[in-house]
Fold this sequence. Notes:
Number of domains: 1
Largest sheet: none
Number of strands: 0
Shape: elongated
Strand content: under 5%
Amino acid sequence: MIKLGLFLATLFLLTFYKIYSDYEGDKKKFLIDTGLLLFLLFATGFSKYARVYLPLFVMHIVLTFFAWLWYYLYLWGRTDKIWYIFAPILSIGAFFIIGFIASQT
């Protein structure tokens, strides 16, 4: 757990440094980039809860990795699409749906 926290803190600091160094007075882009970063940190931290359902956990890890990759492509200007960054929502939603269905039986 400590390793995940240190990893997330390092990712946050390096990425926030990149966002801050590219900041040119465009507050909207700065807030969007920072919000996406916070969402990805939340989605990565959610991985510890998804371990309950192993296939869902694997899917969540793959989607989170894909989202981080797409975020860095977006951050360095390789793409303008940000919808792929929200891919971990699928596994988080599936986690809550499966939990709801399991609690009903």
